[in-house]
Design a protein that fits this description.
heterodimer, A: 316 residues, alpha+beta, Uridine Diphospho-n-acetylenolpyruvylglucosamine Reductase, domain 2, Enolase-like, domain 1, five-stranded antiparallel sheet, three-stranded parallel sheet, 11 helices, 11 strands, B: 731 residues, Aldehyde Oxidoreductase, domain 4, 3 domains, seven-stranded mixed sheet, five-stranded mixed sheet, 32 strands, globular, binds flavin-adenine dinucleotide, binds iron/sulfur cluster
Chain lengths: 316, 731
């Protein structure tokens, strides 16, 4: 770990200004991802701005009939909120499928969206990794790639975005609210929030430097049956090999988003029209153009089969 | 004391304290955080500083340049030791690769330097500033590719043969010839390797985490060129080892070198991400099994070959061991081959040999039973043998294997298993049952102890035996209490200090029986001294209820020590009973699994182990050993797999997020039954090991249950869903 300085922000806008002031400075929320990465020098911010205690931890109704979830709402509190459990069950299910109870007590809504990949070469600072060190290459291509992405990948990076929560957020059409150092705010639909790796896998989302997430909004509830099926080798405390988040309506229509297959939560709205035709039809358009390795090629079948199980579950 | 004839009746047989399910006497310390582990010995070493290791980041080659200048100027840095500063070091007897590498690099994450600084954070930050330039050499990292070049290992018995295996196999009416693989596995124990080292002149004390104090003392001395008497190891509490702490590792040597250079005591712990490639692991195997049988299920030919790899000078995974002893059959062969690989050092992990060997053999037995249309329990029972199949006439000292199988089948509801796979369903889940034999030899090791009877009538046992979470403290206290007729509360046990008598140490599941036998020997001596002090006849004196009675007199035991503590020391040594008797432990594992019909997710539902392992010294701690081992077996079956990057030559998933071991949610209802046994051939304790037996066969029972659930036979561990997917029912 490299030495760093630390300050506690006094307001969201001040936090953004403080991060903007020093090159490489970062916000720290729960710290469950950032501190781990700092200890092994994958991240080495010279300055940390603590955004806890700024009042960004409330869940409140919006004028549109949805909910505004503060950026610092803990994963545990979000999952347990009665309104979330009632109207956005998908989100609760995705959250409790992630990490462990202790981690969820610390982890925040914004931090979860921004957590970094779990590619093992990204974690080993002595290996080539374009995401960690742009231009150094990608050790996962031709190496260990069982847990890696099959869609949205590039020659530069095949890492997955590991979040469960983000997959549910994507299916629920959430939006990210931010404030920049100059005080301007904006609202970014989650569909536009993440970036594919292309030739710049170190750029993972559209946030500008020092732009602070203040909240994530959920639109009006859409009803339906909410299923989150996370598939992994062990029963808990592991990232998804694949996960399927689905909101299925009685008329057979619905929404589907995938985790564990792409550098971002993966949703192809056009594919959802195929839901009445079944899992195979949906999967072939969801995963169209998949680029697999021998180790992760099984994810194509796994997505189809998991989606099949999810549809069956929802019908049952 | 020498043990060379089977035990007769002795005070242990009273079973007033021994054999009782006493809570661990170290339990309250562990649960209140007051059992201090090596890295936490601030009480013993108040002014220590911290060392952080710099690991090699290539698999094979040479260090061209190591630049420590920037690191030396970093805040808090007191010293940096590389191979150059350390000067010549001798490799320890039990190490294959050097613990401090450079200029030659033998494996990924081999330590190249230790950076010592005032604080942990300063040491870690400065270690990040050491720049190393390498010249890489090509290496061999792929066992399958190196298999053809594998050779007969120099030690052990690489080839065994009885009868005419080839002829009998060729003419057998029913045969199986199959290949199996097991991956590299990591011990992944809770407590990382850690040491605090302090010098006083040329005398060195190491507070460390080590299973085998005497081996450790010898190897520290050898490595550093010190007289053994100048080295003291202290290791009273160990947060798990599983064989990973049998040997001295880089933490101990680098703490010692760092402390010498800094002139201050130094604490070094291996960071978790470095443990997987820096330390030892259970080597991967490729195994071929051939079995021939008559239509009524009698094995006529059994052959087991195993290939594994290690660094030059290393040894093989002896995966064929159990096949020499487990089943009958007149014609047999085994072969062990060793390839040179430049991966990190392979070595013992819990039940070395048998754990890997049974993973293959017990699937083969399941396959064979199916070919024979026999129930897998029945097939195993039909091939029981009461004598060493390689040396007819040499009997097992005790072998209740068939009883384990039968008892387990009954208890588990085995009769409900469908012989045809893929037939049992519970909603979305396919359900199946599997069985496997458990087998592990019972090893005995010389072990010593000192026992003191204090003036207050309390007994204190001192031995360099270790407690790696197994319950040694408790069974040793129970032994002394039984021998001296004292309540458990009147006995103290002090362990893990090389200034105490040399014990068996903890390894190879020999520790429980051997270390308590050593305490028994010392207690016999102490009883003589006590009887003498009381003017009683030692042979007829009865020690019970805190009193010693003989010749119509009965006096409190404390009387004997009223004018001063009485001390006795002895050890138990073993004769050649193994020439007449084969000593092994036996068991049967039964497992029920559910496999998601769509996704292939595998979840264990129920587990039962039945063990025949001699006298159970403490049913509670023994049960804990077995359920822990069963849990480890779930890991071996379903997830544990050090992924080898065959281009770069290292284990890629080198942290606990990447190297998955079971979590609570993976472990269902577990039940353990111990058969009521006492084996007089093992020692006066009549006990054997259980800690490794509990692991042996578990993974195969799970693999067999997955087959029974799905009809998909997986011969390559771990059994993960991707290996099932294309053969599961269509959704
Ligand atoms: C062992 C382990 C297992 C895990 N398993 C899972 C799992 O199964 N599924 C899963 O989804 N997750 C899992 N996680 C990840 C966990 O969900 C994340 O670590 C957590 O959500 C991150 O939140 P945090 O608040 O701690 O973020 P931090 O670590 O504080 O921050 C993460 C990043 O976000 C930035 N950031 C934080 N808040 C803001 C903000 N408001 N605006 C702008 N930038 C911000 C920080 O600068 C940093 O770069 C696991 C983590 C661990 C350690
Ligand atoms: S997949 Fe991405 S994160 Fe992994 S090594 Fe390649 S570039 Fe780095």
């Amino acid at each position: 770990m490299k030495p760093f300085t630390y300050e506690k922000a006094s307001s969201p806008a001040q936090a953004a200004t403080a991060v903007a002031r020093e090159r490489g400075a970062k916000f720290i929320a729960g710290g469950t991802n950032l501190l781990d990465l700092m200890k092994i020098e994958v991240e080495a911010p010279p300055h940390l701005v603590d955004i806890n205690g700024l009042g960004l931890d409330a869940i409140a109704p919006t004028d549109e009939g949805g909910l505004r979830v503060g950026a610092l709402v803990r994963n545990t509190d979000l999952a347990a909120d009665a309104r979330i459990r009632r109207d956005y069950g998908l989100l609760t299910r995705a959250l409790v499928a992630g990490a462990s109870g202790q981690l969820r007590n610390k982890a925040t809504t914004a931090g979860n969206l921004l957590q970094r990949t779990r590619c093992p070469y990204f974690y080993d600072t002595h290996q080539a990794c374009n995401k960690r060190l742009p231009g150094s290459g990608c050790a996962a291509l031709g190496g260990f790639s069982r847990s890696h992405a099959i869609v949205g990948v590039s020659n530069a990076c095949i890492a997955v975005h590991p979040s469960d929560m983000a997959v549910a957020m994507r299916a629920l059409d959430a939006a990210v609210e931010t404030v920049k150092p100059d005080g301007t705010t904006r609202r970014i639909p989650i569909a536009d929030f993440y970036k594919l790796p292309g030739s710049t896998p170190h750029v993972e989302n559209v946030l500008a430097a020092a732009e602070l997430i203040t909240a994530v909004t959920l639109p009006k509830p859409v009803g339906g049956t909410h299923v989150y099926h996370k598939v992994r080798d062990r029963a808990s405390y592991a990232f998804a090999l694949v996960s399927v988040a689905a909101v299925l309506q009685p008329d057979g229509s619905g929404r589907v988003a995938l985790g564990g297959v792409a550098p971002m939560p993966w949703r192809v709205e056009a594919a959802e029209a195929n839901l009445p035709k079944g899992a195979k039809a949906v999967t072939s358009s969801l995963l169209a153009g998949a680029r697999t390795t021998p180790q992760n090629a099984m994810k194509v079948a796994l997505v189809e089969r998991t989606l099949g199980a999810v549809i069956a579950d929802a019908g049952a | 004391m020498k043990f060379d004839t089977p035990a007769t009746t002795n005070p242990i047989d009273r079973l007033k304290v021994i054999g009782q399910p006493h809570d661990r006497i170290d339990g309250p310390l562990k649960t209140t955080g007051t059992a201090h582990y090596a890295y936490e010995r601030h009480d013993a070493v108040p002014n220590h500083v911290y060392g952080y290791i710099v690991p090699a980041t290539i698999a094979k080659g040479r260090v061209v340049n190591i630049d420590t200048a920037t690191a030396r100027r970093a805040p808090g840095v007191l010293a940096i030791v590389t191979a150059k500063e350390a000067g010549p070091l001798t490799k320890g007897q039990y190490n294959t690769a050097k613990l401090l590498g450079g200029p030659e690099v033998q494996h990924y994450h081999q330590a190249l330097a230790v950076v010592v600084a005032e604080t942990f954070e300063e040491a870690r930050a400065a270690a990040g500033l050491v720049r190393v330039d390498y010249a890489r050499s090509p290496g061999a990292f792929d066992l399958a590719a190196a298999k053809g070049r594998a050779v007969k290992p120099e030690d052990g018995q690489p080839d065994t043969a009885v009868g005419d295996f080839a002829g009998a196999f060729a003419s057998a009416p029913v045969t199986l010839d199959a290949m199996y693989t097991t991956p590299d596995q990591s011990h992944a124990m809770m407590e990382p390797h850690a040491t605090i080292a302090a010098w006083e002149g040329d005398k060195l004390t190491l507070w460390t985490a080590n299973q085998m104090i005497h081996w450790g003392k010898g190897d520290v001395a050898k490595t550093l060129g010190l007289p053994p008497d100048n080295v003291r190891l202290v290791s009273p509490y160990i947060g798990g080892g599983f064989g990973g702490k049998l040997f001295v590792r880089a933490d101990a040597i680098l703490a010692a070198l760092g402390a010498k250079a800094a002139g201050r005591p130094v604490a070094v712990a291996l960071p978790r991400p470095v443990m997987f490639n820096n330390t030892t692991h259970r080597p991967a195997t490729i195994q071929r099994i051939r079995i021939g049988a008559t239509p009524d299920g009698k094995i006529t030919a059994i052959g087991h070959e195993s290939w594994s790899g290690d660094l030059p000078g290393g040894g093989p995974e002896t995966a064929v061991q159990q096949t020499r002893l487990l089943y009958a059959g007149a014609n047999r062969m085994t072969a062990t081959r060793l390839a040179t690989l430049d991966l990190p050092e392979g070595n013992a992990m819990r039940a070395p040999g048998e754990a890997s060997g049974l993973m293959a053999l017990e699937i083969a037995m399941d396959e064979m039973a199916e070919k024979l249309k026999l129930d897998p329990v029945d097939f195993r029972v039909r091939n029981d043998t009461q004598e060493d199949p390689e040396k007819p006439g040499r009997r097992f000292s005790q072998r209740n294997f068939v009883q384990c199988m039968r008892k387990g089948a009954e208890q588990f509801g085995w009769s409900k298993r469908s012989a045809t796979p893929g037939k049992m369903r519970d909603g979305a889940w396919l359900v199946g049952m599997g069985v496997a034999s458990a087998f592990r030899n019972n090893l005995v090791m010389k072990s010593g102890a000192r026992v003191r009877l204090g003036t207050d009538g309390r007994a204190t046992v001192e031995t360099d035996m270790t407690d790696i979470g197994t319950g040694s403290y408790t069974i040793i206290a129970q032994t002394a209490a039984e021998m001296l007729g004292l309540p458990l509360s009147q006995v103290s046990v002090v362990l893990g200090d090389s200034s105490f008598p040399v014990s068996s140490g903890s390894g190879g599941q020999w520790g429980g029986n051997s270390s308590t036998a050593g305490v028994y020997a010392a207690c016999v001596k102490l009883r003589e001294a006590i009887a003498g002090a009381l003017g009683m006849d030692a042979a007829s004196a009865v020690f019970d209820d805190g009193k010693v009675s003989a010749g119509g007199r009965s006096v409190p035991i404390a009387e004997a020590a009223k004018s001063g503590e009485i001390v006795a020391e002895d050890s138990m040594e073993y004769g050649d009973l193994e020439k007449t008797f084969q000593q092994s432990t036996f068991g049967a594992h039964f497992v029920e699994v559910a496999v998601h019909a769509a996704t292939g997710e595998i979840r264990v539902r129920r587990m039962l182990a039945v063990c025949a392992a001699g006298r159970i010294l403490n049913p509670k701690s023994a049960r804990s050993q077995v359920i822990g081992a069963m849990t480890m077996g779930v890991g071996a079956a379903l997830m544990e797999d050090l992924y080898v990057d065959k281009r770069l030559g290292f284990f890629v998933n080198h942290d606990l997020a990447g190297y998955e071991v079971p979590v609570h949610a993976d472990i269902p209802h577990q039940e353990v039954i111990f058969l009521d046994e006492a084996d007089p051939v093992s020692s006066p304790m009549k006990a054997k090991g259980v800690g490794e037996l509990g692991l042996c066969g578990v993974a195969a029972a799970i693999a067999n249950a997955v087959y029974n659930a799905t009809g998909v036979r997986v011969r390559d561990y771990p059994v993960t869903l991707d290996k099932l997917l294309d053969r599961l029912p269509t959704v």
